[in-house]
Amino acid sequence: MNWDDTTDETAADRLVGASADREDQAVEAALRPKDLDEFIGQEKVREQLDLVLRAARARGATADHVLLSGAPGLGKTTLSMIIAAEMGAPIRITSGPAIQHAGDLAAILSSLQEGEVFFLDEIHRMSRPAEEMLYMAMEDFRVDVIVGKGPGATAIPLELPPFTLVGATTRAGLLPPPLRDRFGFTAHMEFYEPAELQRVIHRSAHLLDVEIGAEGAAEIAGRSRGTPRIANRLLRRVRDYAQVKADGIITREIAAAALKVYEVDARGLDRLDRGVLEALLKLFGGGPVGLSTLAVAVGEERETVEEVAEPFLVREGLLARTPRGRVATPAAWAHLGLTPPQRTMGGNGQGDLFGA
């Protein structure tokens, strides 16, 4: 099993993980907005993308290639489908890991219709030969198909119909500049504010025929880590609790009781997040402590702690990465209801004992 598979598998098992499992994919298909007016949040991206698509329609041309970056669960796939719908075009969907050879990409490109939207998720994980073929396809709508092997190999140019590539990535920094430069429009998807997530939850509750009050939606939104996919997943779990333990109506009290059962606290931290913080605070006095040592204390792989738990803890201001190791912030002590030791943070030499 490779590193990415381990991390994705762990993330998919978490209620507050942003990766989509099969249940999420099925529900998202039903809840997905169909046009830009219906899409909630990402105001700047929506405004800019609307201009790009309207201008393309006015010219009677295909839209420029679009690159969407941002954390999982923020709506990149949904926007790609909206782009196709707004342009009145079909959409072809695949992912970077599925394209391991240039021939895989050539087969897809050669079958595209004129104006079709080609959505390539996790584009940064595509193989290098396929990536280089994509350069020419995006710029000149042409690919060179190699026939034969060795000295007798021949490159046959294959003309492609104009199409729109929508690339999505969670790690834009891994894209080579030549690929990034070929996108006519790039957008970064931001995490959602609680008020925006409340709108998402109310809309989803209506489509799922779930009765929810404003305070119940606010309680779920506050624990959704700024991510619509997580908000919808928590809504479904709270709905289950409300149907079994109450009258089916989601109030603040019902939402809080349900999420307590699922071990999602008031700030959206789950068992893994709290385990990392508790080990850092209780075993190592708040740090600094090396990542490998912290992972052993939690009983998780180093990559799981670094890629699954840490990003949210850092974003919430509960943990800091320093040259000497991981350090808990005063907010972490307060969140777990613990009293920090009477010393300057990191000033007792623990970085030497528990270094990275």
TrEMBL record:
It catalyses: ATP + H2O = ADP + phosphate + H(+). One of its GO terms (cellular component) is Holliday junction resolvase complex. DNA binds at residues 302, 321, 326. Residues 193-263 are annotated as: Small ATPAse domain (RuvB-S). Residues 266-356 are annotated as: Head domain (RuvB-H). Residues 62-193 form the AAA+ ATPase domain. One of its GO terms (biological process) is DNA recombination. Has 3 domains, the large (RuvB-L) and small ATPase (RuvB-S) domains and the C-terminal head (RuvB-H) domain. The head domain binds DNA, while the ATPase domains jointly bind ATP, ADP or are empty depending on the state of the subunit in the translocation cycle. During a single DNA translocation step the structure of each domain remains the same, but their relative positions change. NCBIfam families: PRK00080.1, ruvB. This is Holliday junction branch migration complex subunit RuvB. The gene is ruvB.
